[in-house]
Each structure stands twice: as C-alpha cells, then as structure tokens.
TrEMBL record:
Ranges for domain RNA polymerase sigma factor 70 region 4 type: 123-174
Domain spans labelled RNA polymerase sigma-70 region: 23-83
The name this protein goes by in its record: RNA polymerase sigma factor
Domain DUF6596 stretches: 192-292
Lineage per the UniProt record: Bacteria, Pseudomonadati, Pseudomonadota, Gammaproteobacteria, Lysobacterales
Top-level taxon in the UniProt lineage: Bacteria
InterPro entries: DUF6596 (IPR046531), RNA_pol_sigma-70_dom (IPR014284), RNA_pol_sigma70_r2 (IPR007627), RNA_pol_sigma70_r4_t2 (IPR013249), RNA_pol_sigma_r2 (IPR013325), RNA_pol_sigma_r3/r4-like (IPR013324), WH-like_DNA-bd_sf (IPR036388)
UniProt cross-references to PANTHER family, sorted A to Z: BLL0085 PROTEIN, BLL6612 PROTEIN-RELATED
Annotated source species: Lysobacter koreensis
Length: 432
C-alpha cells in the first residue's frame, strides 16, 4: 500500500469512527458542559485533532476513548479561556484530574455507565418543541446521525447555508431558552417522545419517498432513521409506540430493493417482485410489532401503521393481501389520528377491498380539502380509481395534474406514463 493509499484508508477509517462515535461523544460532553452547541464544538475539535494525528501515529486501539479524552482536554482549555462559571470549571477540571491516570479502556467503561441516558437526553434535547420541525430534523441528523451540513442539505435538496443556519439557530434557541439537558418526566415526557418519534419518521419518509429531486428514494436517510429508532426503542423499552415506529420502518425498509427498477424507475407495491423483499428486516419488523403489542394498551398510530405494513409482507402474492383487514386498520387509524392523508390511504384500502367505486366515493369528499390542494397523491389516487372504472379521459387529466404537482422527477415520469397510457386506451376504445 502506497503512502497515499494509507492516508486515504486512515481518513475513511476516521469517517467511519466519527459516524459511530459522534453521538456518544456529543451526548457525553453535553452532560458535562450542559450545552449542546458547545458539546458539538468540542467533539469537532477532537475530530480535527484525529485528522491531524492519526495519519502519522495510526488509529488508536480505542478511538472512541481517544476522542473523548481529547475533547475533555479541549473543554478545560475553552472553559478557562472563556471564563465560564467557576463551579463548572472546577468540577470539570477535577474530573479530568481524576481520569488522567486511567487507561483508555477504563475511561470508556466509565463513560458507558451513562451513555444510554446521555443518548436519550440528546435525542430529547435535539427534538425539543421550542424548535421548528425543520430545525429538529437538521439538529438530529447532525448530532445523532453524524451527518455533515452538506450531506443534510443534499438529502433534503436545500442550500447548505439554509441547513447551517437552521442548526445554528436551533443551538442558539436551546441555549437562550436554557433548555435542560435531561429526559423530561410525566406528561412532558409523552409530548417530547412524540416529537422524537415524529422527527425520526419524517427523516425515514423523506428517504423512502423523496419529496423532490431525481431519485425515487434516498436509502441513506432511511438507514439513519432506522438506526436511531432502534437505539431509542432500547432506551425506552416500555414505550410501545417506539417499538411500533421501529416495526413500521423495518417493514417498509424491507421493500426498498423492490421499489426501484433497473433504470431507477418506481415500482409500485402491487407490481413488486416479493422475492426481493428483505426477509431479515421483515422478521425484525414483525418482532418489533409483537413487542409493541405485548406491552398492552391501545395501539398507537405507529403500531397501527406497522400492522398495516405487516399485512402486506405476510401476503405471499399481491392477490393474497387481506385488504378488508387493512381497511379496518385504517378505520382505527382514522379514529385515533384523523387527517386527510389517512383518509386518502383509507380510500385506497376501501377500493381494494370493496371495489373502486367505494374508494372514489371517499376520495371525492377530499377534493376541496385545503391541505391536499398541492398534494400530488390526491389526483394520482383519483386517477387510478377512475381508470379502474373505465373513465379513461378523466383519469388521464388526473394523472397529468398529479405530474404537474410533484417535485420528484421519477414520480413525474411515472405519472406521465400513466396519463399517456390512458390516452392510448381511450384512442383504442374509439377505434373499436
């Protein structure tokens, strides 16, 4: 291996280490300095030090401990320079003195005592309701996902400066609001947990069906959300909805390879090659769903959606799908978490279970819903139901309208193809 190759290999190793260790590192530092922004800066300082030293000295046996020890030294320096609260300075300095003689392995063991709580605190802090949903997403991906600002910007197709501004403002908001680095209790815990789950689901959904751009999916975002969801579920093992969300993401992720054709084009659920579905992820998802159900109580929105997804993966073929059960589950979801999007999905289930006319009847009630005015799936679903009822020209117009509304190139191509197919069928019918 040449020196250039060795250098590149070390940098790839550092990148991998950072992805794995940065959430632990930032969480541990935030517990000590009680400031998420400062904790991230200290972690970044340690990363810079690793980039400077490891190419020549080699990657240490325990890179996580090395990064933490380096960050803690930087914390002492910064606290001294900035003349922060004397008590905090003395406390942190005393902790460092006690640990200077410890071996790196001992240091990691000590940190691991609190790392689970630290990660949970960091999740609840990054998803604080004082922040906008966009800021929560950006901060979560930065602090817990280990993504760079550029990676987040590319994933959501926004300028890097926009993401950077969101992150800076989020950290400033948390600091100015003096948000405590802690897991809330009681009713506040439930509210904040809902926020954490929502952020993870939003990240996953953006990866599963990209809002805009040239790609149908962004698998990296799905992987980040799923990894963080698994961590969260183990940190709050008695919270059924955390397991419900993991179940939903595992099952949805199991179909990802089958959702894209050879040219990158979308492949809809009923047309997918089910042999390409990932059986390992399906097994994990069904196990998570069972775990959620065993905790008792009424099913929450994520557990209900996971149960719907489970109906699909349990069916050997598309024709075996239990659409009546799916429609019933959507009825329950509509009662628990009513929304126009849930009603639209319920309409699809009703159409599959009881015929397209039943689904179209419900879709027509959503035609004037303001929140769906620019939602491309409303005319897409209506077009599909009209097509199945033989109303080809109306279906063509709906597919064309849906194509004009979507900002995803692959989705637009699919909808335009469906519109063209309607026109062709209509012409054939006229010739006969």
């Amino acid at each position: 291996m040449t020196a250039t190759d060795a250098h590149a290999h070390t940098h790839r190793t550092i990148d991998a280490v950072w992805r794995i260790e940065s959430p632990r590192l930032i969480a541990g530092l935030a517990r000590m300095v009680r400031d998420v922004g400062l904790a991230e800066e200290l972690a970044q300082d340690a990363l810079v030090a690793a980039l400077e030293r490891w190419p020549s000295s080699g990657v240490p046996d325990n890179p996580g401990a090395w990064l933490m020890a380096t960050a803690k030294h930087r914390a002492i320096d910064r606290l001294r320079r900035r003349k922060l609260i004397q008590r905090k300075h003395e406390q942190l300095g005393h902790e460092l003195e006690l640990q200077q003689d410890l071996r790196e392995e001992d240091l990691v063991d000590k940190l691991d005592d609190d790392i689970g709580d630290d990660l949970l605190r960091l999740m609840f802090t990054a998803c604080h309701p004082a922040l906008s949903p966009e800021a929560r997403i950006a901060l979560t991906l930065r602090l817990l996902g280990g993504l760079t600002t550029d990676e987040i910007a590319r994933a959501f197709l926004v300028p890097e400066a926009t993401v950077a501004q969101r992150i800076v403002r989020a950290k400033r908001t948390l600091a100015e609001a003096r948000v405590p680095f802690e897991v809330p209790r009681g009713a506040e815990f439930d509210a904040r947990l809902a926020s954490v789950l929502q952020v993870l689901y939003l990240v996953f959904n953006e990866g599963y069906a990209a809002t805009a751009g040239d790609d149908w999916m962004r698998p990296g975002l799905c992987e980040d959300a799923l990894r963080l969801g698994r961590v969260l579920a183990e940190l709050v093992p008695r919270q059924a909805e955390a397991h419900g969300l993991v179940a939903l993401m595992e099952i949805q992720a199991s179909r990802m390879h089958a959702r894209v054709g050879l040219r990158g084009e979308p492949v809809l659920l009923l047309d997918q090659d089910r042999s390409r579905w990932d059986r390992l992820l399906i097994g994990r998802g069904l196990a998570a769903l069972e775990r959620a159900e065993q905790l008792g109580g009424a099913r929450g929105p994520y557990a209900l959606q996971a149960a719907i997804a489970a109906c699909h993966v349990r069916a050997r073929t598309a024709d075996d799908t239990d659409w009546a059960r799916i429609a019933a589950l959507y009825d329950a979801l509509a009662q628990l978490a009513p929304s126009p999007v849930v009603e639209l999905n319920r309409a699809v289930a009703l159409a599959m279970a009881f015929g397209p006319a039943a689904g179209l009847e419900l879709v027509e009630t959503l035609a004037d819903e303001p929140s769906l005015a620019s939602y491309h799936l409303l005319p897409s679903v209506r077009g599909d139901l009209l097509f199945k009822l033989g109303r080809r020209e109306e279906a063509r117009a709906e597919f064309a309208r849906a194509a004009a509304l979507t900002r995803n190139l692959r989705q637009r191509e699919l909808l335009l193809e469906r519109a063209a197919a309607c026109a062709g069928d209509a012409a054939d019918a006229g010739d006969s």
